[in-house]
Amino acid sequence: MEKEISRRDRKKRQVLTTLVDVTMKLFIEKGFDETTISEIATAADIGTGTFYNYFHSKEDVLRYVLTKKLNETKDSLEELNHSSMSPPEKIAQILLTVGKIFKENQQLFNLCNRHLALMGPPHGTEFKDILVDMIQAGQINGDFRKDLPTEMITELFMGLIKSTITSHAKIPFEENLNYKLSLFLDGLMTR
Fold it and tell me: What pTM, to 2 d.p., does this model score?
């Protein structure tokens, strides 16, 4: 049975949600460097000291939001990995899911790239591990070529996402992603 949340804990969650929402809005409107903690506190209708009860710095807010988004993405990908779809369907769906998440959160990822000193991917190897599982299952099933090293397939896959996000082509995002997905799967599938 789930424990009922106390009024105090509900209030803390509400303050946290407001604080994060206001902070991200200010970062997007004014810019990260131009936004002060005092402005964030005022906009969130809290004292400056209360900000520090939740976060140590503006960077911590970005890390919090990024971690939350990556955890949501990981949960979606794990669910997809355990689905009854075939490996090629899983690979296609993972690319479309990750692409959509990146597109919808472009401003967040741009802020994180510019203002956080990330030592490697912020999600560790979790996403890669899920992808490797899908690729290996496809190779075992005979859906994917076995002559291609898993590491090469993984690098190409991650490159698809990055090249679509940074593309200067005059093609809409989803169409760009689907073209690349088709080329990728065509080279990966057994004949």
Answer: 0.72
